[in-house]
Amino acid sequence: MTGNTEDEATALASTATAQSSGSKRGPSIADVAVAAGVSAQTVSRVSNGHTNVQEATRRKVEDAMRLLGYRPNRAARALKSGRYTTIGIIMFTLSSVGNVKTLDAITQAASEAGYSISLIPMPDPASSKFPAAYARLREQQVDGLIIIFDAHLSDKADLTLPMDLPTVVIDSTPDHGYTVVDTDQAGGARQATELLLGLGHATVWHIGGPATSFSASHRAAAWRETLNEAGIEAPPILYGDWSTDSGYRAGMTLASRDDVTAIFAANDHMALGAMRALHEMGRKIPQEVSIVGFDDLDESSSFWPPLTTVHQSFQTVGSLSMQLLLEQIMGAPAPSTQLVPTRLVVRESTSYPHR
């Protein structure tokens, strides 16, 4: 044991033995204080992370805690500090790669800050289920709330977010005065569309995500606006549901048209499905049709050909959300919308039109 004499070690061992042979209750602050030869107040300071304790004394107390198996009473600490070191998370899907990566970043950031996570997944943002999920988290006494919600809050008239709890919303409209963290959806879609137009394509077709999706609608709006600014009337959108199957169906429709030379898909999975359809229809990529995705999945560089796509950092979105939530918990004012930049990753699925 660091910093203890042999006599001190013997005293600690004796205390541990007495503890185990006596009552079944767990070791208390008083037990640790006796074992370490310090006051109960000093043990309390160490267990609460206070800095006004000499390093040698801190080591003695920590050694005594480890030997006795002492664990600070979390409920008592929360009662004293007003914080429970737990963050509640409500997610409306766990099937999305982006949501899972965002959740992973949140949990890592929370762990580094000494917080645990209480997760409630929901199949959809139905207003009748959200209040119950929120009530469950309040019963678990969370310090703050993160909602991963790829939808328009304004479309859910009955959905009321808590006003008495620090809250951060990911992927949604900033309609309700809450802190919103989001990828720069519009900026990424503009980059994709401008690339294809800059290569000389007469227009860009779009495979969009679900009409109810906040992310999809912003990407589609930026695509359309970019075409209009170039004096090009946007062709009709082919809607998918983020899946490769929906991208394949849209791709079959587009592959049958000789006037289609450039496609911007709202995510990489739909781009992959469209690429399969183009291959099956004998349309060469990129010689006959160029295609751009959105997400930059780990596998996108292994598509055939490797996919040009818009990179969005799920890691940054998750860690930034946790950072802003912790700042609110500590009393900082809630900021407004925070956008995480995107960047275009150019690979072999795009080129100038060859005819």
Word description of this protein:
The chain folds into three domains: 6-72, 434 Repressor (Amino-terminal Domain), CATH 1.10.260.40; 82-179 and 314-339, Rossmann fold (3-Layer(aba) Sandwich), CATH 3.40.50; 185-313, 3-Layer(aba) Sandwich (Rossmann fold). It is of the alpha/beta class and 355 residues long. Helix 6 (97-112) links the parallel strand 1 and strand 2 (116-121). Helix 1 runs antiparallel to helix 2 (29-36), helix 2 packs across helix 4 and helix 8 runs parallel beside helix 9. Mean pLDDT is 84; it is low at 1-24, 75-82 and 153-158. The N and C termini lie far apart (77 Å). Helix content is 43%, strand content 16%. It has helices at 6-21, 29-36, 40-47, 55-68, 74-81, 97-112, 130-139, 185-198, 214-229, 244-255, 268-280, 314-329, and strands spanning 86-91, 116-121, 144-151, 167-172, 179-183, 205-208, 238-239, 262-265, 290-295, 308-311, 338-340, 343-345. The chain has a six-stranded parallel β-sheet with strand order 2-1-3-4-5-11, sandwiched between helices.
Largest sheet: 6 strands, parallel
Instruction: State the CATH superfamily name of the largest domain.
Output: Response regulator
What portion of residues belong to β-strands?
Answer: 15-25%
The helix content is: 40-55%
Strand order of the largest sheet: 2-1-3-4-5-11
- Ranges where pLDDT stays below 50 over 5 or more residues in a row are 1-24, 75-82, 153-158
